[in-house]
Amino acid sequence: MNKGSNSTMNLDQISIDNSLVQLFNSQGYLVVENILSKDRINSLMTETDEIISKPTIPYAKALRSGYQSNWGVFSDHVGGIASQGQALAALQSDEEVLQLATALTGGPVNAIGLSMQVMFGQCGCKQPWHQDHTPGDPKLKWINCVYYLTDMNEDNGSLLVLPGTQNIPLTKKHPDYGLVPGAIRICCPAGSAVFFTNGLLHAVDENRTTNTRRGLKVNYVQVGMDLFILHEQRYSRGVRRGDG
Description:
Layout: E1 8-10, H1 18-27, E2 29-33, H2 38-52, H3 58-63, E3 67-68, E4 74-79, H4 86-92, H5 95-105, E5 109-119, E6 127-131, E7 142-148, E8 159-161, E9 184-186, E10 193-197, E11 202-204, E12 213-222, E13 231-235, E14 238-242
Parallel strand pairs: 1-2
Antiparallel strand pairs: 2-10, 3-4, 4-5, 5-12, 6-11, 6-13, 7-10, 7-12, 8-9, 8-11, 13-14
């Protein structure tokens, strides 16, 4: 279950109506369980294992733990992976999830940019509090949908969110990592997906296990919007220019 929140749904029980959209707009996120069947999870595990076995930079394999990312931790972000397996391609083009994302966005969207965040075991992997862009720019509105192939708990790199911050520009510094007052830890079973707006203040806690944690993300972008234009990513430690 998603600790401390009523924003958890089961795909079989979801009714896409105004109350669901209002909940999402209020909280900034929605957890949906049972989106992926066990067979789909197994297929995605096989295809992502193949990707992880081929590090994107030479010294990653030597380290056996990834590389030092922009956040100063050992992790790997692999983009454009929809072409690297049938299960991955089907994940990006899933019509049922597209309909849900369309309803949550309030207009037509495109599913693009399937990527994977790899967090290697016992390497200090974590991600600081940040917003994907500065809220308030109508040209920059999209929904992140992150799928989990294993049960997510307090120890294996769970997503942390601050509900209701999606429309509020970051104005104060938070502790870089870990829970802060008012934050929610997303704990959910394998096969779940978390939808959250790009303005929501969020972080990823440390993967303290010996297992590799992977999150597969699809961006649901408003039709006509260019996801890859330059925009600001706001971090609790300050503001820096990102490249999307």
